[in-house]
Amino acid sequence: MNTLSCPSRSSAPRNLFSYRKYWASRFGTAPYLPMSRAEMDLLGWDSCDIILVTGDAYIDHPSFGMALIGRLLEAQGFRVGIISQPDWLSAKAFRALGKPNLFFGVTAGNMDSMVNRYTADRKPRSDDAYTPNGEANKRPDHAVVVYAQRCREAFPGSNVVIGSIEASLRRIAHYDYWSDKVRRSVLPDSKADLLIFGSAERAIVELAHRLAAGEPIATIRDLRGTAFMVPRGWLPAAGWAEIDASEVDTPGLLVRHADPYAMTPEAGKEAACASRPALSESRSGAARTQVIQMQFQSHLRMPKLDRTRTAIRLPSYEEVAADPVLYAHASRTFHVESNPGNARALIQAHGERDVWLNPPPIPLSTAEMDGVFASPFQRRPHPCYGDAKIPAFEMIRFSINIMRGCFGGCTFCSITEHEGRIIQSRSEQSILHEIEEIRDKTPGFTGIISDLGGPTANMYRLACKDPKIESACRRLSCVYPGICENLDTDHTPLLQLYRKARALPGVKKVLISSGLRYDLALRDPQYVKELVSHHVGGYLKIAPEHTEDGPLAHMMKPGMSSYEQFRILFEKFSKEAGKEQYLIPYFIAAHPGTTDQDMLNLALWLKRNHFRLDQVQTFLPTPLAIATAMYHSRKNPLKKVGRDSDLVETVRGARQRRLHKAFLRYHDPENWPLLREALKQMGRADLIGNGRKQLIPFFQPAGTGLRGAPPERVQTAGRAAVPARVVAANAARTKC
Fold first, then answer.
1. Residue 616 phi, psi (nearest 5)
2. All domains of the chain, ordered by start, with CATH?
C-alpha cells in the first residue's frame, strides 16, 4: 500500500512534465478534443483513454477548466474526449464516445451548478453564460452527482473521478443554501471512485499515469488534493495517528449531543471537561467527573505527533447536520488545515464510512504553470456550435490569466477553498507569448487586451518573504486585519509586465478588469500611477463591499480609510494623466454580521458620494465558505465557537434581504415603499422627504412601487395625492 506524506512547499514534488509520455502520443495533437465518434475516426482513435464530462460548452481556451485539463492530459500522451452538456435524463449521451480506457472525469463546469442555475433569491436564472446563445436549463441541479451517476449507468465498470469547483466546495458535509440544509459530501452521493479538489493538475496527471500502468484506482490513496470513501477507522499505514478536531481547536461548552468534545482549560483557569462518547447518561456525577479527569490527564500526556502522519477527525455528517455549532467548529478546523505546507489529512464520518481528505496539492512552479498554458489551444469554441455566441467566451476572449490563488481570505469568496492562498504565477515570457497568440489567432482582435489578471489584479508574484514562515503559517488572510510584515508587496514585476505587454506590436491598449486589491496597491504608489495612467478604460472596478466596521470584520475586508486613500491617489493620477476616469465600487447586501442600521449607513454614504448603483449583489452562501458557516450557524468561525459565543447578525428572511438590497438602490422608485416603511420602523422618518440630505422622497412616481396605483395620481403614506407633473419635477430636483 502506498503511504501518504505531507511535505512542505519547499519539498520538491514531481514535475508535471517529467513523466514518460503514454504510448498514444503517437497520434499527435488533436485540432479540438473530439466530441463525437466521427471526430475520433478522423484522428484514427478506436477509443478514448479519458473522457471529460462537463456542464459547460466546450471552448478550447485556457480560461475553461475542461480545456485546460484536457490539453494537459493530451500533452502527457493520452487520448482525451469531451462530452459537453449531455442530456442527463438517460445514459445514452454518456455512451457517445464509448467506454474510456482509464476514467471518466466529471465536472459541473467553471461554476457550481446551483450558483449557475439560481439567483441569490433562489429564483431560476433566465440564461447561462457558459451555454451557446446563453440558453438556460442545459445542466441539472447538482450536476456532478447526476453526471457521475449517469457515467456509472452507461458503463458500470468504469472508473469515475469528480473534480472542479463544485466537487471542491462540496468535498465534506456542507450547508446547501438552495435546500436550506446540510448535505453530505458529494462523494457518497455521486458514487465516484475519487474526488480531486483544488487545482487538479498534479493529481490528475499522476492518477492517469498510474492507472495506465495498471494500478487499481481503489489502491491509489496517497495523492495530495484527493478525497475518497473508506471503511470507518481506516488509516493508510502503520504509524499513522488519528486525533479529534477538538484537540486542534476546542469549541465552547457543548451539551446537546451524547458525543460532546473534551474541553481544555482556559488560560489561567481550572476548567471542567465535557465527557467523551463512552460516558452513558446513567452514570453518576462523581463517576462522570472521574472519567473526565482521567481522559484530560491522558490528553496532557499525549506525545507530539508527526504532522505528516496524522489525520484529524471532524465532527461527522450526522453531527454537523444536527448541530450548527459543530458545523461552525468543523468549518473553522477545515480552514485552519488548508496550508499545503502544514495541513493534515481530514476525516469525516458519513454513516458507517469515512470521507478521507488528503492534504491540499503543492502549488505549481512558474515553469509548470507556463507548461500548462502552453498547449496548442484554438482559443475559440468547438466548431459544432457554429455561429452561436457563448457569453462567457465573449467576455474573456481577449483576456489573459496571469496567476491563480488569493491570500485575501474574504469570508464570502470561494477562491481560497478551491485555489488556495499561495499565489501561482506564470512567467513574463509565457504571458507575452499568449498576447501574441491572441493577436495572431483570435478573430475580431482590435488591439485591445481586455484583462491581465486572475482572481485579483495585483497579486502577481507576491508571496511570503520566507518559505519556512509560509509553510508554518495558519493565518486565514495575509492582509487582514492588516498586511502581514512577512508579505512581499513589491509590484515591480507586475509593472514590468504591463509595460512590455503594451509595447508589443499590434497591441494598442492593455486594460485591467480583474478586481483590484487596493490596500495592497497603496503599498506601491508607482503601481497605482502606472495603472491609472495606462490601464483604466474610463472606469475601474474595486470592491470595498461595505462601509461599516461590523460587516467588514465578518468579511475580513479592510476599512474605508484604505478606500479613501486609494480614491485620492486615483483622482490625483487621473488628473495628472489628463484623463476623466471613475471608480466603480462594489458592495454586498445582507452579508452575515450586517444590521439594518449598517445598510442605512451605507445608503447614506452612497448618496453623499453621488453613487447610484445599477448592479448590486445580495450575499449568496456558497458551500464551504466561512461566511456561509456564519449564515447557517449564526456563529463566527473566525473565532473559537461554542454555545455561549456571540451570535452573528444574520439576514435570512426574504423581506429583510430585499430591504438590504433596496438600501443599495435607494434611488430606485420601486424600492421607496419598502424603504419608507423600514425607515419609520427604525425611527428615521426624518430621512423621508425631498431635501438633499434625505434618502428617499415622499412622492411615489406613477406606475412604480405601489402596484395597481392610478396612472396620474399616487397616494403616498401620510400625505395627500401628488399630481404626476409634480412628481416628475421633484424627481429632477432630487437627483444626486
1. -130, 160
2. 23-227 (3.40.50.280), 241-330 (no CATH), 366-653 (3.80.30.20), 667-736 (no CATH)
